[in-house]
Amino acid sequence: MLESHDLHPVTSVNWFGAIAYCNWLSQTNGFDSCYNPTNGDVDFTKNGWRLPTEAEWEYAGRGGLTNPYCMFPWGTNYNADGTFANWENSGDPFETTNDYPCTTPVGFYNGSLRYATNYNWPGSQTTYQTSDGSNPYGLYDMGGNVWEWCNDWYMNNYYAYCTNYNIVTNPPGPTLAILSTNDYFPDYATGAPYRCLRGGTWWNGNATNDFDYGHARVSNRDPAWFLGGGPPGDPYGQWSQTGFRVMRREMIPQTVGLFTNLPGVQAGYTLMSPMQGDSTYLLNNNGQYVHTWTSAYTPGRADYLMPNGHLLRTCSLGFAALLNTGGGEGGRVEERDWQNNLVWCYEQNTPTNLTHHDIALLPNGNVLMIMCEEKSLAEVLAAGFQTNSQTQASVTTNGGFLLPDAIIEVQPAAKDGTTNGTIVWQWHVWDHLIQQYDATKANYGVVSNHVELINANSGPLQQFWNHFNGIDYNPQLDQILISSRNQCEIWVIDHSTTTAQAAGHTGGRYGKGGDLLYRWGNPAINNLTDTTHKEMLWQQHCATWIPTNCPGAGHILIHDNGINRANPAYTSIDEIVPPVNANGFYTGASNIYFGPTNYFWQYTNNPATNFYGADIGGAEREPNGDTLITFGIRGTLFEVTSNLQTLWQYVNPVTTTPLAQGSTIPFDPNSNTNFPLETLNEVFKAHRYPPNFSGFAGKDLTPRGTIETYTGAATDTVGLGLPDCWVRSHFGTLSAVTTTSSHSGNGLTDIQEYQYGLDPNVWSSANDGIPDGWALQYGFDPTVASVASLINSNGNTTLQNYTADLNPTNASSRLAFVGVKGDGNSVQLTWIGGNNATQYLLCSPVLVSTQWNTIFTNLPPTGITNHLIQPAGSSNLFYRIEATR
What we know:
Layout: H1 15-28, H2 54-62, E1 113-115, H3 116-119, E2 127-129, E3 147-153, H4 158-164, H5 176-180, E4 195-198, E5 222-223, E6 242-244, E7 257-261, E8 269-272, E9 279-283, E10 289-294, E11 299-305, E12 311-316, E13 331-336, E14 342-347, E15 353-361, E16 367-373, E17 375-376, H6 377-382, H7 389-396, E18 401-402, E19 405-411, E20 422-428, E21 433-434, E22 454-455, E23 468-474, E24 479-484, E25 489-494, H8 499-502, E26 518-520, E27 541-545, E28 556-560, E29 572-576, E30 601-603, E31 618-621, E32 627-631, E33 636-640, E34 646-651, E35 687-689, H9 724-731, H10 750-756, H11 772-777, H12 798-803, E36 816-823, E37 826-832, E38 838-844, E39 853-858, E40 865-870, E41 878-884
Parallel strand pairs: 3-6, 21-22
Antiparallel strand pairs: 1-2, 3-4, 4-5, 7-34, 8-9, 8-35, 9-10, 11-12, 12-13, 13-14, 15-16, 16-19, 17-18, 19-20, 23-24, 24-25, 25-26, 27-28, 28-29, 29-30, 31-32, 32-33, 33-34, 36-37, 37-40, 38-39, 38-41
């Protein structure tokens, strides 16, 4: 060891020396050795220490900075002042011409002021201010200082080779056999293969007009022969640039988080609300969350993003619900903005009505909601339900009532954070029944002659009779799609009707009132089973129309849970082509069940029983043709191609709180034989939103880390509640942020920007001339550009109020003359305005735009009330006041 170099990285070690150390370290600590010391072969299944593969090294070097990818381990700073890393001409106090190797101590670049008395460096500096060169994983010297040996042989085109052969998860490095048939960039002299080096060097790569940044870019790859020689007079030659870093797999089995992310996956961000928690997460495809919302309630099942980026989320009132459906309890719908402020909420929670499961946002801003309603035993019997013991027991033993479903359309009255809303349209199952049990009761008719009506006496009667669990809206056809679980059917109804028409059998765009325009899945409900029409759905969830921007547009996609489909049961995702024309009319007859009789496309697992969820679940088509599936009871989200290949898979790591990686996901204690194997990380259904989604405009989507936790991982090094990866992505270094720092200068600290989900380097997220801090101060969403043109209570637009430093919530806050008094030929002017804007007093003899002249400039801070006396000759003029900031 060189004198005074005990804190420096080891250098001048060849590859076999490095693996010998790995074996020694493994044996010393009771682990299995990974290497054959004779030929260098590695056994990846052993638990000992070894050199990292290239893929592992780069993964560690990036430290999670992948959205966007950063050039250096610490972020985007180019190290122009040499304070982030040790490379050629960095100017550090260890950089001399006669004391080789010119390495710096490990972890030297941590943002601290270093003192010569502590290091005895050869340079003349008494102190040296460093920047934080660590990466988000807390690793130092991943760029610069010394080259680091990797386990791999170097192969010039190995990345392309991996892509061509679909080796995209943990590439192990090329074998000699692969090298022999590929371009591996051999030694020009001998043609021999060499091992790979990563990380850069203190010696070369940053000379004048040399922009290799010390070879310290995270993506830089070098074969061992390509070191560029060594310093003149260095007794160790070029090898004084080489060192190594060792790693050991913890062998913690992965239980949660991102499992698969292959090329071709649909770009975007996935919205997920764990059913046992109070938070909603927005995830990128790398399994990192970029935003969260919280509520006082667990989800009432469904959630969606609105076009403005607000979260529309159902809520479960839990024990406060006045009805108990036995599944999907809700009672409340919330709209929250990007800053998690409650914008609007609606509650339908009475002794006779409760909203549940799903919602659909309409283009006009109204919200469709599923609602159950109480019907007494007397009403049930009067409607023609069978008067047998089963009917009596189902109703009377559960409070004495039945709970059929309805659809309501709620119009928000005000978006002021209060609970409000008016039901402006409604449709009820109860208005569209058919029964042929008792001719003396209501709804009597021949069931098989009325495919448009719902048989009151089909199948077992449960108190939660229909159990609607999904709703979708088709704006082109003005139709509503409903998933009725207990009937094992999907239904389509006309939304163009009035409420009165929706209660009847005529009227509306399609002339059928509120009767079913289309139904599919279980012809036995209306006694219409025949050799062609058989049951196709088994207690399904989440029926949706495929959007117009996706392959299969207009088809219907269904998550079919598959209860009682087969033994053993399995779940499928079914795509069907409904028999509908361009005008929205469905082909069929009143006494024939609707088609199709076959699936257009179907996803099942292999074997099929590997994907069986008796409860919840969802599916949605993506623009690239893939399908995003929610395996609800296991909290697993995955994307499959049309040929059933899984490209992306993520397991929700949240029960009531986030789990640590490797933790066993607990089973739901409420699961039973009807819903086996349900775990506490359930997710009702997830949604993917593209990067260009309108609601993301002006929003900060920088990764904030994984939801799952990792023992010993550095996540908030600075201790300000800010994830390291978020800080580095924005500023390049952890030391850039303090309790009061504000890089945007918009009135918010960097910490507040993080809390509000805003970009801390942007003054105005909406780019509308209004700083984010001012907008938030007065209750505006700073990411919405239309805020600038809103007319506020004082009659000005929001932008005018900011420009003049007026209070937009105060009707009396104005920039205006309040007094004009003539005294001979002089004029006394009095006006009011804000304190922090520059005010300009202008005059003109005529009302022509080119004739106005500035006669007085009032610099801030100004008074609320201001006076100016104009001398003789100032009468008979027009005056006006302006303000700018």
